[in-house]
Amino acid sequence: MRAAGDDIEGAVYILAATVADPAECDTIREALRDLKLGNGPKLHWKDENDDRRALIGAAVAEMPVMHTVVVGTPLDQRKQERARRKCMERLFYELHTLG
Would you say 13 and 1 are in contact if contact means Cβ atoms under 8 Å apart? Predict the structure, then answer.
């Protein structure tokens, strides 16, 4: 969820899925592990600065995968769970239409 200050009505909820050929998954996982800094448990966008985000984004853009993103807006921050459910509902629909 992304919100600007105290604007409880102006937030957005973003949810994404990545689909890959199972034969490519080990290679993709290794490339993502190589992008982690230190011994942290995972690579997470929210933990990265702008330079690292650019590096990670460029690396992911080169991977043999398909990305689907859904955005729910406007969003009342007090109803995050509802926003998450609605975005998941749409994301699952979009993935289903891809087969």
Answer: yes
